[in-house]
């Protein structure tokens, strides 16, 4: 009879720093895997005990004690099944990103992550020391190796596990979402599989953590590079696969293979999950949104209702003399569609009182951006008052295109606790709105058809201040996400004067972006953790 092992992939939503809650969840899910799926081993994601990424929480004196106690508790609390957990391992003045295999109170194996990513959103060399040794353990006659996330992205650690006798490699991960993340992960694993002729079990986090969203997508890949099973993305999952040891190697049985959604759908799911977890994990009972009648606030309202439920969402419309009848009608219509609490608070009394009070300081100068910003700040004051009094988090509605060039008002429309669209370019905002309407129309069509406008001046449209978004977004992508020079962008066919203007706007507005609330990361280069530019800089680069 051949050797068989039933491996459960525990794709769970864990909270950074909630060691007690994460430990309870690990124990509960391990027992489920044992009792419901008859699993021999259950695998949890990277740093599952403390959550990922823990950042400077790792330096907190109490975390070491809590983590060590949690490892011991899991060892005592789970019997009859082997458990693979990730945790920060402290050794004198060193910290390792480690995983352990526990069964019936015994330590079967321990592994320390060898390759520490230090790029994009990752900063692991700040915290961890690199491990050196392979780790192999046996369950039911099959020898398993251990790797952690980055270890599988480059040659070396998988080969070392194979050389140590591993017939199957278990990889635990904290791999965040971006547009092509699932494809990139599977391609990386496929390379390691081809190099080593060994199947891989890949288990990833799911859930939102500040700017990051972990999309799950855990999978098993056989030694031929074919997917044997794949968990659904953006939701918790416990999926079990049977591995059979044969004369030619370990073969996973084919199980459920969830098919990834299309690109726009994945982005929408990431925004929903990131918003849901950020609001819930911070203990807010709901959110408040300022509805303008434009596409950005309309999309944020849809995301919030899908994430939290309509009963947790409240909207406020704050018209002024420049607010069109269409905007007021469309805001009311969308609120009606979702069935949310909706209030209308005109800002004219507040605006007039403010400008009257400021008149001795501002003098008789012609109206300019100052008066436009006062309108935005009146609205910000109203929304923050509702947020404070009702205990609801204010969601800001600005998008990446606006934030890139500073087309936003500090302490006005930038006010709030979370920005779902912070990393979403304007053109993608429209695609997401259209996709959401295809699932059931919730955004009035004329919101999508009309030219975008801040409605802070008579007959104002965004193109009065900005290049058309069809031109702006591709320039921003090249300049921000790909770090192309002005010359390189111009060589792609863009007008030099427009490119220089856009680049200057991006460079000048870093100070605004530093004061913006966090928001969901969906691109390869988001503001904040990804792109760290100095606020004060004399660089005016234009050469390739």
Task: Explain what the structure shows.
The protein has about 550 residues and is of the alpha/beta class. The protein folds into two domains: about 5-260, Carbon-nitrogen hydrolase (Nitrilase/N-carbamoyl-D-aminoacid amidohydrolase); about 265-515, 3-Layer(aba) Sandwich (Rossmann fold). The chain contains 16 helices and 19 strands. The chain has helices at about 20-35, 60-75, 155-165, 180-195, 265-280, 295-310, 325-340, 350-360, 370-390, 400-405, 425-440, 445-450, 470-480, 485-490, 495-510, 510-515, and strands at about 5-10, 40-45, 80-90, 95-105, 105-110, 135-140, 140-150, 170-175, 200-205, 205-210, 210-215, 220, 225-230, 235-245, 250, 285-290, 315, 340-345, 395. Strands 5-4-3-2-1-14-15 form a seven-stranded mixed sheet, covered by helices on one side. Strands 6-7-8-9-12-13 form a six-stranded mixed sheet, with helices on one face. The longest helix has 22 residues, at about 370-390. It is elongated.
């Amino acid at each position: 009879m051949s050797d068989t092992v039933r491996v459960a992939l525990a794709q769970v939503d864990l909270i950074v720093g909630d060691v007690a809650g994460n430990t309870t969840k690990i124990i509960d899910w391990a027992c489920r895997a044992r009792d419901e799926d008859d699993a021999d081993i259950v695998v949890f994601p990277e740093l599952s005990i403390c959550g990922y990424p823990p950042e400077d929480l790792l330096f907190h004196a109490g975390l070491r004690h809590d983590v060590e106690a949690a490892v011991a508790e899991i060892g005592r609390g789970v019997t009859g099944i082997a458990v693979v957990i990730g945790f920060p391992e402290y050794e004198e003045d060193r910290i390792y990103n480690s995983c352990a295999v526990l069964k019936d109170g015994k330590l079967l194996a321990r592994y320390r992550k060898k390759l520490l990513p230090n790029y994009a959103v990752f900063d692991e060399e700040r915290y961890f020391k690199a491990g050196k040794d392979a780790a192999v353990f046996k369950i039911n006659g099959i020898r398993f190796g251990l790797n952690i996330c980055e270890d599988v992205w480059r040659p070396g650690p998988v080969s070392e596990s194979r050389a140590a006798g591993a017939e199957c490699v278990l990889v635990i991960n904290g791999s965040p979402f971006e547009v092509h993340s699932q494809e990139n992960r599977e391609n990386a694993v496929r390379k390691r599989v081809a190099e080593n002729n060994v199947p891989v079990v890949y288990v990833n986090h799911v859930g939102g953590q500040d700017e990051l969203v972990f999309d799950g997508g855990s999978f098993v890949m056989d030694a031929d590079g074919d997917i044997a099973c794949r968990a659904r993305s953006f939701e918790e999952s416990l999926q079990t696969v049977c591995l059979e040891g044969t004369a030619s190697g370990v073969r996973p049985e084919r199980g459920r293979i969830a098919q990834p959604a299309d690109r726009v759908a994945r982005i929408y799911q990431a925004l929903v999950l990131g918003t849901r977890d950020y609001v819930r994990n911070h203990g807010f009972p709901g959110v408040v949104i300022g509805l303008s009648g434009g596409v950005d606030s309309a999309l944020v309202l849809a995301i919030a209702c899908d994430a939290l439920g309509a009963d947790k969402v409240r909207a406020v419309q704050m018209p002024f003399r420049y607010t069109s009848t269409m905007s007021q009608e469309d805001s009311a219509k969308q609120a009606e569609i979702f069935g949310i609490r909706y209030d209308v608070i005109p800002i004219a009394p507040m605006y007039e009182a403010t400008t009257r009070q400021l008149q001795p300081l501002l003098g008789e100068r012609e109206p300019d951006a100052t008066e436009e910003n006062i309108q935005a700040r009146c609205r910000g004051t109203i929304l923050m008052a509702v947020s404070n009094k009702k205990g609801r988090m204010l969601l800001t509605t600005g998008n990446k295109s606006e934030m890139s060039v500073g087309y936003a008002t500090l302490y006005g429309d930038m006010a709030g606790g979370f920005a779902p669209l912070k990393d979403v370019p304007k053109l993608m905002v429209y695609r997401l709105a259209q996709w959401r309407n295809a699932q059931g129309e919730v955004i009035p069509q004329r919101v999508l058809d009309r030219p975008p406008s801040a409605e802070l001046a008579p007959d104002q449209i965004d193109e009065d201040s900005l290049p058309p978004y069809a031109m702006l977004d591709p320039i921003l992508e090249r300049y921000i996400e790909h770090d192309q020079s002005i010359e390189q962008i111009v060589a792609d066919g863009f007008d030099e004067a427009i490119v220089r203007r856009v680049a200057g706007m991006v460079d000048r507005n870093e100070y605004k972006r530093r004061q913006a609330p966090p928001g969901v990361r969906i691109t390869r280069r988001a503001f904040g953790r990804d792109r760290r530019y100095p606020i004060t800089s004399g660089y005016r680069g234009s050469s390739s």
